[in-house]
Design a protein that fits this description.
two-stranded antiparallel ribbon, 5 helices, mainly alpha, elongated
Length: 120
């Protein structure tokens, strides 16, 4: 059975942690960071492409690139694979993936038992 590497549409958001981590950000920066997190949840680590990241973050204007760079520096790490990683998102995506694999295995086993016991 082919499985999707993309998480479900829902994303865990620990509101207390988010608010604590972004308390010093204005609405524009907080919103841009949230957009980056949502994209990360669906697609994984971020490409090192400022134009694409500006598009994803919805940032525009003369300060957009410097805001993006500040957000990346504060919340992400640029890893050896050339991508921007966010540690908590990596942990949450791994937990999601393990849970999905377990659910697939359970459903497969249940289907096997059902069809094995089906006289037709």
């Amino acid at each position: 059975m082919a499985e999707s590497k993309k998480p479900d549409i829902w994303m865990p958001l620990y509101i207390g942690n988010y608010l604590a981590d972004t308390a010093n950000l204005n609405a524009t920066r907080s919103g841009a960071y949230l957009h980056l997190l949502m994209y990360y949840w669906r697609n994984g680590p971020l490409e090192d492409d400022p134009g694409e990241l500006l598009f994803i973050s919805k940032l525009d204007g003369p300060d957009a690139l410097s805001i993006l760079q500040a957000l990346l520096k504060k919340f992400f790490t640029h890893e050896a694979d050339g991508l921007w990683h966010q540690a908590q998102q990596d942990k949450e995506r791994e937990k999601w993936h393990a849970k999905k694999i377990k659910a697939i295995e359970k459903a497969t086993l249940a289907a096997d038992v059902r069809w094995k016991n089906d006289p037709g």
